[in-house]
Amino acid sequence: IARIKPSVTDAQLTDDLAAIGGRLRDEHPGSHGTDIGVRVVRLHEEIGGRAAPMLWTLFGAVVIVLLVACANLANLFLIRATTRQRELALRTALGASRLRIVGQVLGEAAVLGAVGGVAGLVVARMLVAALLAIGPADLPRVTEVGVGWSAAGFTLLVALGASLVVGLAPAVHAWRGDVRGALQGGDRGASQGRGRVRTLLVFAEVALSTVLLLTAVVLGRSFQQVHAVDPGFRPAQVLTIRLSLPRARYNGGAAIERFYDQVQPRLASLAGVRAVAAANVVPMNGYLATAAFFVDGVVARDAPEAHYRMVSPDYFRVLGIPLREGRGFTAADRRDARPVAIVNATFARLYFGAGSAVGRRMRLADGGKMPREVEIVGVVGDVRHFGLEKEVTLEAYVPLGQVPDPTTIWLANNMYWVLHTDGSPLALANTVRREISAVDPTVAASFVRSMEQWMAGTLAPRRFNLQLVAAFAASALVLAMVGVYAVSAAAVAARRREIGIRAALGASRREVVTLVLRTALTPVLGGLATGIAVVVLAGGALRRVLFGVQPGDPVSIAAAVATLAIAAVLANLIPALRAANIDPVAALRVD
Question: What is the pTM of this model?
Answer without folding.
Answer: 0.76
